Amino acid sequence: MELISTVLSNLFTIENILFMNVGMFSGILVGALPGLTATMGVALLMPLTFGMDMITGILMLLGVYCGGVYGGSITAVLLKTPGTPGAAATALDGYPMAQQGKAGLALDVTLKASTFGGLFSALLLLFIAPKISKLALTFSSVEYFAMALFGLSIISSISGGNQIKGLISGLLGILIACIGTDPISGTSRFVFITNLLAGVDVIPALIGLFAVTEIINKAYSVYKGADEMHAFSNKGIKYREFFKHWPNLVRSSLIGCLVGATPGTGGATAAFLAYNEARRASKDKEQFGKGCIDGVIAPEASNNAVTGSALIPLLTLGIPGDTTTAILLGAFMMKGIAPGPLLMQEKPQIVYTIMAGFFLINIFMLIQGKFLVRIFANVTKIPVKLLIPMLISLTMLGAYSCNNSMFDVKVCLLFGVMGFIMNCLNVPLTPMVIGMVLGDIAENNMRRGLAMSGGNWRIFFTRPISLVLIMIAVASLMYPTVKYLINYFKSKRQPITE
Fold this sequence. Notes:
By secondary structure, the chain is mainly α. The termini are far apart. It is globular. A hairpin with a 6-residue loop joins β1 (about 180) and β2. It has a two-stranded antiparallel sheet with strand order 1-2. The protein is built from 23 helices and two strands. The protein has helices at about 1-10, 15-30, 40-45, 55-80, 90-100, 105-125, 130-135, 140-150, 165-175, 200-225, 240, 245-260, 265-280, 295-310, 310-315, 325-335, 340-345, 350-375, 385-405, 405-425, 430-455, 460, 465-495, and strands at about 180, 190.
């Protein structure tokens, strides 16, 4: 009881409440701007915490983190421009909903799914953090490779009606992920200019593929005289209707928690895995990609569940779960505190205050989001002729801000043109994004796994977790083909009626 009273008295101060909300608001704005990720928001605002109390400063940065992850879904839904890599999966069904005049509904669904995922991970953080962190630490390069391979298998289920074009798009993404310096041998691959030695930055590429491609499409529609605004509705979803999707919410949040607690992964991996599992479990798979609510819930719940679970290895073991928590680790060290098992034993009141504060931050996200959604949804009312110049400015600014480099702007434009050509040829863009995000993870961990075994491939099939993930990945890849063959032979057996 003494610990609980200490935690509550440390948490519920006017200063803490104020800066949690300031951090949340700043994070949402940063996340909604293409290219300005949650990681960048935390890094930019960390100097503001120098003069603050340790708990106040950490809670403010956590607010930026959660707000930034959620904010990426706003532009993904309204403009098909993911503010963060993890929101790329949200755009698959969120943007079609906005086109159907359901922008308010889509934004309300993303907000509630994000809050659910965040609160779900906050509860895990409070009650079973040490156990999950120990499970995550059992993952080696072999399991990381199997997880990435499982993620790549999603390509087969989101390629639409043409599996061949989907596979080509996915392989093209993997090929782009190979550009740069080989991390194992140091050999340059597909490097024609020095700017590519570090590889292709995913964020400018994503901005180009989604934002610039959509801008070109909008400009083309204006040129053709099709500058029509869709009917607009600011109506959200009732909680009773929302919680009818509870199996998807729980499943996606669990996926996000597992991925987030595994150091080295991220929200994009969790979002695409959850989207694939939601589609696999759905009775109406054909609606995915056309404005399906489950297709919005899955990536947002898992994406935001990553935020809390990424803190699990940080607070319990001192190991950052992703790049953002690595910056948070620096913030802890700056305040003279080293996260890890000793912190849990010597100063549990600090750890539990931060955990409880994270729970409170997600509640504030729901409150702020309800207010901001009404403002952001009005973007769809802006005429396309006025919207295009604004979007061009934002996308170029976002691409440049990634590394303060004009080269990233050129990469953004190049991928935009590439995406437009692929759209004209009916080649899906999403498999390419998955290949770019997961290709590098799969290759590096495959080679590390082979180095562990002395070049013996059996290591991937002798470890239980890796074997299960690989089997599921193969089944996922083969499922569309097997289904097609079954339907084909069934049609052949049907008697021909005269």
